[in-house]
Amino acid sequence: MSASKPAEQMQFRAEVSRLLDIVVHSLYSDKEVFLRELISNASDACDKLRYAAVTQPELTGDNPDFKITIDIDQKARTITVNDNGIGMTRDELVENLGTIARSGTSAFLEQIKDAKKADINQIGQFGVGFYAAFMVSQAVEVKSRKAGSEEAWSWESDGRGEFTVEETDKSTRGTEITIYLKQGEDEFLNPERLRTIIGKYSDHIAIPVILNGEEKPANRAGALWLRPKNEITADQYKEFYHHVAHAYDDAALTLHWRAEGVIEYTGLLFVPSVKPFDLFDPKRQHGVKLFVKRVFITDHADGLVPPWLRFLRGVVDSEDLPLNVSREMLQNNPTIAKMRQGLTKRVLSDLAKFANDDAAGYAKFWDNFGAVLKEGLYEDADHRKDLSKLVRCRSTATLGKGNDELVSLADYVGRMKEGQESIFFICGESIEKLQRNPHLEGFKAKGVEVLLLTETVDDFWPASLESFDGKSFKSVTRAGEDLGKIDAAPDHAEALAKAGEGTADLVALLKLTLGDEVKDVRTTDRLTSSPVCLTADEGDLDIHLERFLKQHNQIRTASKRILELNPTHALIIQMAARAKQSGAADSLKDIAWLLFDQARLLDGDTLSDPVAFSERLGNVLVGAVLAKAV
Ligand code: ADP
Ligand code: MG
Asked: From the CB of 128, is ligand 1 less than 6 Å away?
């Protein structure tokens, strides 16, 4: 059958055009990576078909042995990469290679925008690896026949804005990609050069790569994870990581082990050294591929990795699951659950070792993935205890000390003061804002350490963890009574005692004025330079958490707060004195409301009634000016 309809010409999507423009004109020196990307795609295509054939064996039919062949034609100056994988339909060719909005395209463009010598090496990470072929080609032709289909289609482009698709002939299933080398790229016509590239990047590909019809594959074509550790070089681990993770950094940790006993499996897992760009995607999907006896099953085995370890990349190869396991069967599967338990334990213990042996390296890891691990503190009771030892926080005790800025909960407990019963923390938007939060003043004055927490998840885990080493967690915004039990600096204590005496009338007046707006009014020793602050009552929601829940429409009403006064502050002393004079109540009312509003503002809250606020401010200012004038 020959092509029945004329070739159809189509435009690349705009971002793809821009991307191709960069790739085509790149002066990038490691152009050889194009072959890695094509082999990687061919290998993915074989894995996909192998899985599909588990339920539809007719798809592989009489051609069940997967392989990738690479052929060089010196005369035509072409390289052809052929696979007998899943293949693509006409629509898939159009979508996958030219028009669909692949999430990584813009991310990749963003990343290489400024770099003078764009790091095209990373192209595969963004899911646009195919286009690397245009670094070395003046034209690329893709012929594909989907497994199970009779039709074949060809796609062709010179990488300059347009591509064509037309029906074609192809006797076997799979995809055949021919690249027409640019002038000056003749080195890639040398089989030895290609052999070296395959050895360097694709040795770990589990499917044989056959070069120029040779009998022996140019790669080892065995599952790397099944080789003994001492026979695997650091470079081989690295290339394998790059392949499974579509990543191009050096992994922060490599874990390779074999579990034997009740269940048998091999794990080869990597902790990346940079954040994957979709780390906080709501799907919370992990990056560990499931194999059964060396056969790829799926990228998405739910339950194989807890969501709070979703940054992990790599493979788990089970000896116990049946080969024809379907994705549905994997849900709530007891073997999967056991492997999850095993790998979780393994990862946690290796992370503990990492933290112990390399504090600086661990701090970087924590910066990348701490927020994800902390999700486990509140949602995974079984691992809470082990996880709590891995937690690192910024703290008032070490702020600004470079590498040593992060403290562990054990560090904190070791530094607790005489009389201190709880681990104090405060949640807020940023370290800068937290540092100026009035709630910290009294703690600073007494040298009591406070953990500074700035991530969303921080609003939740201290409550779920409840305690560490027998010490409960307490937000400073509600730790009303605690400071008094801890030794006060002598002069502050003295000032407090003296000042506290005169405030009874002021407190009564404020309660009367503010009425239902506050839960209580009282003096506090937590403030040293601010006049007032708002605190949460013992049983109430933390202020920061409550604001978060309100923003996300989880709750409607706000709980009432306690207004606390600093009895050593000049303003409070003055007001207390006035409050004792008869008839002063009226003139103090405006100031009472202003104090309350000020406390809300200091907490990062908004004013409930800005008009009333500005009227009162006006009254007070006029009063002050008149008083001066008299
Ligand atoms: P990625 O491999 O990260 O998805 P690529 O740009 O390398 O991104 O490939 C784009 C898509 O084109 C692949 O996801 C796949 O759907 C399709 N594709 C590329 N090469 C092949 C192939 N040899 N066989 C089948 N599909 C392929
Ligand atoms: Mg790819």
From this structure: yes
Q: Are 485 and 571 in contact (CB under 8 A)?
A: no
Tell how far CA 188 is from the center of its chain.
Answer: 39
Please calculate the CA angle 171-173-174 and round it to the nearest 5 degrees: 125
d(CA 24, CA 118): 12
pLDDT digits (tens, 9 = 90+) for 268-302: 999 999 998 888 888 899 999 999 888 788 888 98
CATH architecture under which domain 229-236+255-348 falls: 2-Layer Sandwich (3.30)
Kindly state the tokens that stand for 219.
């790669």
Q: Which atom of ligand 1 is nearest to the CA of 246?
A: 3
Could you read off the pLDDT of 578-630 as tens digits, one per residue?
888 877 777 788 888 998 998 888 877 788 888 999 999 998 888 888 777 65
Per-residue tokens: 614:
């500005």
Q: Where are the domains of the chain?
A: 8-221, 229-236+255-348, 391-483, 490-629
Is the CB of 568 within 6 Å of ligand 1? no
For residue 1, the model assigns a pLDDT of: 46
CA separation for the pair 572, 565 (Å, rounded):
7
Note the maximum CA span of the chain.
108
Tell me, letter by letter, the H, E, C secondary structure of 322-388: CCCCCHHHHCCCHHHHHHHHHHHHHHHHHHHHHHHHCHHHHHHHHHHHHHHHHHHHHHCHHHHHHHH
CA 427 – CA 451 distance, rounded (Å): 9
Residues in the chain with pLDDT values less than 50: 1-3, 117
Pocket test for ligand 1, best of 33, 36, 41, 68 (most atoms within 8 A of CB): 41
Which residue has the CA at smallest separation from atom 20 of ligand 1?
Answer: 41
Give the CATH fold of the 490-629 domain.
Four Helix Bundle (Hemerythrin (Met), subunit A) (1.20.120)
* Assigned CATH topology for domain 391-483: Rossmann fold (3.40.50)
Torsion of CA 495, 500, 506, 512, to 10 degrees: 140
175 lines ligand 1 (CB under 6 A): yes
Q: What is the pLDDT of residue 296?
A: 81
pTM, two decimal places: 0.76
CATH no. of 8-221: 3.30.565.10
**Distance from C-alpha of 437 to C-alpha of 194, rounded to nearest angstrom:** 62
Q: Which of 451, 391, 407 is nearest to 427 (CA)?
A: 451
Q: Please tell me the predicted confidence (pLDDT) of residue 493.
A: 65
Residue 185 has a pLDDT of 95
Does any ligand 1 atom lie closer than 6 A to the CB of residue 96?
Answer: yes
- State the DSSP H helix or E strand holding residue 313, giving kind and residue range, or none if neither: strand 313-318
Cα–Cα distance between 314 and 94 in angstroms, integer?
A: 30
Residue 264 token pair = 């048998």
Q: What is the pLDDT of residue 491?
A: 65
Q: How many Å apart are CA 473 and CA 393, to the nearest integer?
A: 14
User: Strands 561-565 and 532-535: what pairing?
Assistant: antiparallel
Q: Give the position, in ligand 1's atom list, of the atom nearest the Cα of 97.
A: 12
